[in-house]
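thread: overnight batch results

M.L. [08:02]
morning all. the overnight job finished for the chain we discussed friday. pasting input first so we're all looking at the same thing
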Amino acid sequence: MKPELEIHADDVKCSHGATVGRLDADALFFLRARGIPEAEARALLIQGFIGGALDEIDRPQIREAFGTACIVLAAGHSESKS
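M.L. [08:03]
and the structure it wrote out:
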């Protein structure tokens, strides 16, 4: 016998959330202190953050496209903040 979950439509409540925030200043400093340019350091941190989610995408072309799009969008966002 395996565990089961029974949900009745009248009992269901749901919502969603998002994680939004700045890159870790200490992590950025660490990379910059080792000679990594700021844009590359930001890209590395973003890739590390989204890497787990991207790994779940089975199709390599789509995974790569999403990864590239995230980096490009983040780079454009950080330039507009400067």
